[in-house]
Amino acid sequence: MNRIDGGSAPVSTLSRRNLLKAGVGAIALAAASPLALLPRPARAVAPISTLTFTELPRIYDQTHHVADGYKADVVLRWGDKVTADAPAFDPAAQTADSQSKQAGYNNDHMAYFPLPMGSQNSERGILAINNEYPDFQIMFPGLITSEDDAGKAVSKDQADIGLASVGLTIVEVEKKDGAWRVVEGSPLARRITGFTEFAISGPAAGHDLMKTSEDPTGTKVIGTSTNCAGGHTPWGTVLSCEEWSVSFFGGDPAKTQTREALERIGMASEDYYGLARFYDRFNVEKEPNELNRFQWVVEVDPYDASAAPVKRTALGRFGHEGAAVALNKDGRAVVYMGDDDYFEYIYRFVSTNAFNPADRAANLKLLDEGVLSVAKLNADGTLQWMPLVQGTGPLTAENGFPDQATVLINARAAADRLGATKMDRPEDMEVSPVTGRVYAVMTKNKKRKPEQVDAANPRAANLWGQIVELIPPGSGAEADHAADNFTWSLLVLAGDTAKPEIKASFHPETTANGWFATPDNIAMDPKGRLWIATDGQNDFGIADGVFAMDVEGPGRGLSRALFACPTGAEATGPFFTPDGKTMFLSVQHPGEDSESVAKLSTTWPDFAPNGLPRPAVVAITRIDGGEIGG
Ligand code: FEO
Ligand code: CA
Ligand code: CA
């Protein structure tokens, strides 16, 4: 989501050292070499990029667009039937009960799980889709209000529809005659919502800070919210990240005994969705611990519709965006995670035990025990992972950390104590299946002042974002994701390449159509190329969309556009089938720039008379059936 941002600010400078760190110097020198001026020989010249598609020209209108030779089919829209007993979507007669059987709102992260489990089937599988937050002002005909006033205007029934619209949507999908469709009546289909019971596991389960009047055990919680990006595990589960659950709470933190902790997690007395008017547990003045039970990583087993979802406290509590999983060479599971807020951190979890391909039940507990660390990116290109372990360094009882549960619940405060590097809103992360290098997206940070720039966040008033490459020792399957020390470099500084004052650092052959800003979600295709979905280019008057680049070889940093979203939408959750021939993509919040249902900027994708815009999942394929990107 992009609600925590907005506005604009002047740009500043970027040092030559950082330009060189980003690889720009070498690329620019190569392009300016005398050889580049010679007539091209008749024989074929190796292309710079491995990506062969003709990029999409800039376009921003009421519908979506995809590059020539590709198609983007709508697979699942908000309100479509999920469970067998779901009613047909009727925007004029929405209820929480019907919404909890239909596809949720504002689809974000997705993961595709082949069927049967353990296969590489790229034509039949399960899609597990995050649903992040409701847009009340464009969900309900007749609720004429501004987005900012929605929380004051909604009725309890509408607020409950909002709770039912978030969480996860799990459906079975299959590809027939080149087109993807949802398999109706699948026993695997289910919704997980703001009303679903979750188990709480890991070191914080049962801790006093997790206990509420409704749950004196501190081991279970009703609901999830703001399920943004996520990840998937080698044992076939999806990780869903609770990013900004504070937006589902109201009450004034200044009137509580836990003001400092509430404010550090981002709590302000907004009651954005009106829930504190209807539920005491969403009012921090009445139930200050309830918010401690949100903003975790949730693990869901898509292969078992009866399996209870679990909040995994060992992975820490912050503004969770992505959760990229790598299997270390010794079998331990490693999870890379971003905390999407201004000046927040990059985290890593390393499991204590190793993945066992013969014991799925044991794997389902791997994320309950291990070490959470936070990253410090030094100016010399080295990176240290600093463990968030109670009793080490400043993480002591005297400093407010009497036990490990308190460290995990207040992970941001613990990371502050360790002096971790304050990043430009860390969003998604992804691990290259080829090199083992890790890519971390910083979406932007308008609040960074000139005196606050550092090597990894080199631009003040950063409206464009950057992608940072984290480099473990070793390469490919030998990469040591559990090492204490990595190195890092800047892959790209994003922004308009026609404005030199911005200091964007794409490969110089990136065209006016190919540069991007405000990167958010990323995916790696089977060949290890990076696909970037953006959230916030609308601020520059251009569409959000999907871009791709090599990260290795001469095409490193040469970005080109594949897909453009309709008005008001961001692109989220790109995910490839194992064969690389389908990219599932979420088109989130189409028409969100509309003031109300009475003034919709688009009614994508149906364009029905008097219809509503509907966030939807699309399947992008090549018309000739080949691999995405070539
Ligand atoms: Fe929900 Fe950070 O995007
Ligand atoms: Ca975002
Ligand atoms: Ca996001």
Jot down its keywords:
binds MU-OXO-diiron; nine-stranded antiparallel sheet; Neuraminidase; 31 strands; 10% helix; six-stranded mixed sheet; binds calcium ion; globular; 630 residues; mainly beta
Would you kindly provide a brief summary of this structure?
This protein is mostly beta strands and 630 residues long.
List the topology elements.
Blueprint: H1 16-21, H2 24-31, E1 65-66, E2 70-77, H3 96-99, E3 107-114, E4 124-131, H4 136-139, H5 150-153, H6 156-165, E5 167-176, E6 179-182, E7 190-192, E8 197-201, E9 220-222, E10 227-232, E11 238-242, H7 259-264, E12 297-300, E13 310-312, E14 320-327, E15 332-339, E16 342-344, E17 346-354, H8 360-363, E18 370-377, E19 382-387, H9 404-409, H10 411-418, E20 423-424, E21 426-431, E22 438-442, E23 466-471, E24 485-493, E25 519-524, E26 530-534, E27 545-549, E28 560-564, E29 570-576, E30 582-588, E31 616-622
Parallel strand pairs: 8-13
Antiparallel strand pairs: 1-28, 2-31, 3-4, 4-5, 5-6, 5-7, 8-9, 10-11, 11-12, 12-13, 14-15, 15-17, 16-20, 17-18, 18-19, 19-24, 21-22, 22-23, 23-24, 25-26, 26-27, 27-28, 29-30, 30-31
Bound molecules: MU-OXO-diiron (FEO) and calcium ion (CA) (2 copies).
